Amino acid sequence: MKRISYIIAALLLLSSCEDFLSFDPLTQKTDAIFPQTAEDAKQMITGIYTTMSNEQQLCDMSYHFVMEIASDEKLGGGGNNDLKAQAYEGFMYSDPNMLSHNWETTYEGIHRANFAIEKLPGMDETILPPARNNQYLGEALFLRAFFYYRLVTLYGSVPLKLTSEPVNMGGAAVDDIYAQIASDLTQAIELFPDVAYTAVEDGRANRWAAQAMLARVWLFYTGFYQKDALPLAGGGSVNKQDVIDGLEELVLKSGHRLVGDFHELWPYTNSLTIGEYDYIQDYMNETGKDLLYASDNGARNPESLFALKFSNFADWDIRRGYANMYQLFFGLRGLQPVQNTWPFAGGWGQGNSIPKQMVDDWLADEPGDLRLGASVLDIEAELYWEEEVKQEDGSYKTEVRQYAKGQWDFVWESNYWGKKYLGAAYREKEGDKFKYYNDYSVKMYGNPDNNQLSHADDLIFIRYADVLLMLAELSEDVQYINAVRERSGLTEVPAYSLEALQKERRYELAFEGLRWNDMRRWGADYCKAALESQVGTPVLNFGNPATFNGVHPDGYSARYEETKGFYPIPQAQIDLSDGLLEQVPGYRDGKGLYPGFSQ
Q1: How does pLDDT run across 45-75, given as a tens digit for each residue?
Q2: Checking CA distances to 147, which of 65, 85, 338, 536 falls within 20 to 30 Å?
Q3: What is the pLDDT of residues 451-496, one digit of tens each?
């Protein structure tokens, strides 16, 4: 593993709308004198969070990006040369260091968390009061657990580094990694105050996020590895009832709740875009509802337990990660004029193309489910309209505005696109014409009007609906499923069943990066059947009708058996380990190398 010294000098100013991310650059800090003050301690914790922004600035090497493509919800797609996205689709690798950025930034976060965990207990309580020290220590433990969960579910066995000292390590036993994750989360829960989420600064981890994360870890570990409990470092374990008790406390005390309408969770219901988006206007007219994006104008989203927050200081230097780069990568391909993609923003078109089978399943399982139209963009239905444009002679001409498919060298393009993390554009009337902006945040928050750096919507990692569905699964209590369904006007499920729970998670949490690990923990047969369902879906390759037939020549099921859904450790890290690290099975000796797109 690469030895990374502790440096916070690169952490730069973020916007005032995320106060805890606002601080001065540190240019003369060393581990011998840092931290000395309460402000130092705050900056030290902020530095851990910043590594998540650093990771997503190279979006196609990020954890969330891989999770979306690996599942049956999305096709890798992109351009002919977007080899990483296409390789993820088939559990292959495009180059030996395909995921190097993910590995390096995640271990950078772990290193910073380790440093904080070492330093905080020694701080004078007259400088940093115990309550604040406990909050910061809880955050460092939570984040270390969060990072290790990502690593162990992406690669399997990885180095378990728990000190800031330079050390060369091989991969730890996965049981030991999960035991450390569980211990970090249980300790964080004890340290965090038992207060409503609104009493904790927005954007910071808290007791409720830790309890939800512990449930997510427990469900994956016990499901994927067929265990009865989650071990703790040093002995003992977390059993199912422990997790249920934590989630029940969360429901009773956290203050988190479902927002009133599912649409309110997603950027297109912001106050600047909603008035002219026909889909949502039609819905509001039919229902008589008056919707508003839950995070509009800086308001806190009561359904969001933990999210990556962004700012208006993004640039193409080291601050690119301060914009939400997923909204660029997932954007409609071609960076076309905004009027062609209105009310959504354009982008690079990687990892957001939905197989038709996903939509067909949804229609069959839940006919009339409003979440389908709220989550899935039907390009032909929504991105074609006519506009009256005034000519120079004063007359008006009807012009067609339409997103153009087959842009650049787009492959595996379907007619369906994920809406949840599409950037929401904005337009305003200037005389007889519209002026278009690449994102509503340009006007609302002062973001630069740049089709690649404008986006600033939160990326939500843990949502309250997920909490309710985890509680339903753990307790086998249908009331929690029905609470989620009621929000969307769906009929009640009469009794709990795993099948009903699986469907509810699939549609409520679609395109939020959770489906892949759900598929894996529900068993190999479930996972392989879901993967195989993508074969045969109609697509466009370079704008021409085609059929998607998978990626690996042996097929999804055989490849899953070889890899168990893990991805290769960057070869550079294996080389640096002096033989201590081993490559993931299925990727050794050149096996699994993606040769590039072919018809």
Answers
A1: 999 999 999 999 999 999 999 999 999 999 9
A2: 85
A3: 888 999 999 999 999 999 999 999 999 999 999 999 999 999 999 9
Quote the CA–CA distance of 14 and 487 in Å, as a whole number. Answer: 35
For 506-517, write each residue's pLDDT tens digit.
999 999 999 999
| Residues 314/56, Cβ–Cβ less than 8 Å | no
Cβ distance 201 to 136 under 8 Å? no
Residue that has been written with the tokens 């008035």 in this structure:
275
d(CA 208, CA 252): 11
Report the DSSP pairing between strands 230-231 and 237-238: antiparallel
**How far is it, in rounded angstroms, from Cα 45 to Cα 29?**
14
**pTM for this predicted structure:** 0.93
In terms of DSSP H, where are the helices of 11-99? 38-56, 63-70, 83-89
**Chain segment 385-414, per-residue pLDDT in tens:** 777 777 778 888 877 778 888 888 999 999
Beta pairing partners, 539: 546
Q: And the tokens for 434?
A: 């519209």
Q: How many CB atoms lie within 10 A of CB 549?
A: 11
| The token pair that represents 67 in the structure block | 């999770």
Q: Residue 393 has what pLDDT? A: 83
DSSP class of residue 450? -
Are 457 and 324 in contact by the 8 Å Cβ rule? The answer is yes
Task: Classify 114 as helix, strand or coil.
Answer: helix
Segment holding 402, helix H or strand E: strand 396-402
Report the pLDDT value the prediction gives residue 129, as an integer from 0 to 100.
97
What is the tens place of the pLDDT at every residue in 325-348? Answer: 999 999 999 888 898 899 999 999
| Per-residue model confidence (pLDDT) at position 314 | 79
User: What are the residues facing 545 on neighbouring strands?
Assistant: 540
Which two structure tokens, joined as six digits, stand for 204?
């910071």
Mean pLDDT value across residues 443-449:
91
CA–CA distance, 410 with 413 (Å, rounded to integer): 7
- Cα(140)–Cα(44) distance, integer angstroms: 10
| Alpha-carbon gap, residue 274 to 291, rounded angstroms | 8
Among 107, 118, 120, 95, residue whose Cα is nearest residue 38: 120
Q: Which of 187, 183, 189, 188 is nearest to 231 (CA)?
A: 183
Closest CA to 586 of 156, 108, 199, 234: 156
> Beta-strand (E) ranges in 30-185?
75-77
Give first-to-last CA distance, the chain, whole Å.
38
Q: How far apart are CA 69 and CA 60, in angstroms?
A: 10
Spatial CA neighbour of 534 closest among 562, 559, 569, 568: 559
Tell me the pairing of strands 332-333 and 346-347: parallel
